[in-house]
Design brief:
heterodimer; A: Rossmann fold; 6-stranded mixed β-sheet; 5-stranded mixed barrel; 11 helices; globular; B: alpha+beta; two-stranded antiparallel ribbon; 4 helices
């Protein structure tokens, strides 16, 4: 750290970032935050105590999760502080203009002290996490000064780090299921994941979400829900014959409608899905949906690339984790038809036939 | 021919170039990820066998076989690509490493010449410095053109 004065913002580099993160967590975590209301969030195997100054992120945390009061995963706790320089939160540090910010190298530097952090330059916005104390700090420069994607998947880096320490992973994948058994839908943006999940939900299938899902690699690969958020662009809303005004909320930073599973269906969703196949959808514009085997070497690139890229921190364990998932699951390409009902019916038949 | 900066490529021993290069086996197909840049690599069937042997330290010379679907020139070309992508590097000469059991049969049974396929859809974002490489005033994750 080049200076420690609060009046003069800190400037950090790769070789000082671990000390900065350690001091930040110690300062924020060691302070009484009497004026901040505590909120509780119950996720699979994880009880979160949230203390947040930021109204928008508080609301996002209250509405974006699929909370659960029961889980077959071992219970752990996490305390999260979200704030900006007012009261007990310090001014966020800036990154030195003389040092390249290379996420992979930064993660390696932090790992020396077994810490995690990510930094969003445009806003001097920090996520910092100490797995030893299980204290997490999200530091903003001002109220509302967070990256636009934060509201759709709040606390995501903390969840990623927490679950990764326990051998689980947040995967960038959608899910659909029937009677507790299901498939993972993997692929880059535009591959049809979200539209397929929505088509399934509208036609009686179950889902753990369309974007991020928690994977646990026990005897069976099990998917748990975290976020209830669904996203779809206006064209997709039309194709799915959704009522945008009634069901689909306003447009987010990507120009997509953002809404929740509860906006589409009141049917109860299971606590988890046992995953029996990895499916990579492809929009074809054809009349019918059909499945064909997919080589695992192709599936891993589709599945791992965006999952690893979208999560901060070191990447090797992610590659190993997703490789294990791909090697354990049969992999398929799914060429999507145009009709949501037909897509859902084909997937239901696929799940039943495959015994997944 | 067969030389890189005065080196006989076929006579060398090789090792994985750095800790950032990680590989996994999928039904005998090898996929390599360069963690430092986000590029994925996959191989043709003969190249999968070659990767396994070369990364274990077997000299290329020991992998020239009349039944293999490549010539010495083809093997050299493949080696150059592995070096250019910084997946393998030449290592100090050490104990001779014979090809693992079944590897020669795998190479003999291969149908394709040694080829490497690069998947770099996310590499630009993976490699980018989100501070210095972004398009102003849009910000991350929109990268500067050129």
């Amino acid at each position: 750290m080049e200076t420690a004065e609060r009046s003069q913002p800190l400037v950090v580099r790769t070789d000082t970032v671990a000390s900065y993160v350690e001091a930040l967590i110690e300062q924020v975590g060691g302070t009484r935050h009497g004026s901040m209301q505590e909120r509780r969030i119950a996720l699979p195997g994880l009880s979160i105590r949230l203390f947040s100054q930021d109204e928008m992120l508080t609301r996002a945390a209250e509405t974006s999760f699929i909370q659960t009061s029961r889980s077959d995963l071992p219970e752990a706790g996490l305390t999260v502080f979200i704030g900006y320089p007012e009261g007990t939160f310090p001014e966020p540090a800036s990154w030195s203009p003389h040092d390249r910010y290379q996420p992979h190298k930064v993660a390696q530097a932090l790992s020396q002290k077994r810490l995690h952090a990510s930094y969003f330059y445009d806003l001097d916005h920090w996520h910092a996490y100490d797995p030893k104390s299980q204290i997490a700090v999200q530091l903003l420069k001002a109220p509302g000064a967070f990256p636009p994607w934060e509201a759709g998947a709040p606390l995501r880096p903390f969840l990623h780090w927490h679950y990764a320490e326990r051998g689980m992973r947040l995967a960038h994948a959608g899910t659909l299921g029937l009677d507790g058994r299901g498939i993972l839908l993997a692929g880059a943006g535009g591959s049809g994941k979200s539209g397929t999940v929505i088509a399934g939900l509208l036609n009686g299938l179950e889902s753990m979400g369309d974007d991020y899902v928690l994977l646990s690699p026990g005897d069976v690969i099990r998917a748990y829900p975290l976020f209830s958020t669904l996203k779809q662009d206006p064209e997709g809303i039309q194709r799915l014959k959704l009522d945008a005004a009634r069901n689909c909320g306003r447009l987010n930073w990507q120009g997509k409608h953002q809404f929740t599973i509860r906006d589409l269906t009141t049917a109860p969703q299971p606590d988890y899905l046992d995953i029996g196949a990895l499916v990579v959808p492809r929009v074809t514009g054809g009349d019918h949906t059909h499945f064909s085997p997919l080589a695992r070497k192709e599936a891993i690139v589709e599945f791992a690339a965006s999952s690893i890229y979208q999560m901060p921190g070191e990447r090797e364990s992610g590659f190993r984790f997703f490789s294990d998932v791909v090697n354990r699951l049969p992999c398929f390409r799914m060429d999507l038809g145009r009709h949501p009902r037909e897509i859902a019916d084909q997937i239901a038949t696929f799940i039943q036939k495959a015994g997944t | 021919m067969g030389r890189r900066e005065g080196t006989d490529l076929l006579a060398q021993q090789y090792k994985i170039a750095s800790r950032d290069i990680v590989a996994e086996d999928f039904d005998g197909d090898i996929v390599v990820l360069d963690l430092s840049c986000g590029k994925y690599f996959s191989f043709s069937d003969s190249a999968c066998g070659l990767w396994e042997a070369l990364s274990a330290g077997t000299r290329p010379q020991a992998l020239l076989d009349s039944a293999a679907p490549y010539s010495s020139a083809g093997l050299e070309d493949f080696l150059r690509k592995l070096l250019d992508h910084q997946l393998l590097t030449i290592r100090e000469p050490g104990i001779e490493v014979a090809p693992a059991a079944g590897l020669i049969e795998k190479i003999r049974g291969a149908k394709e010449i040694p080829e490497i396929f690069v998947f770099d859809d996310l590499a630009d974002l993976f490699l980018a410095d989100p501070i210095h490489d972004v398009e102003e005033p849009v910000g991350w994750p929109v990268l500067k053109q050129n």
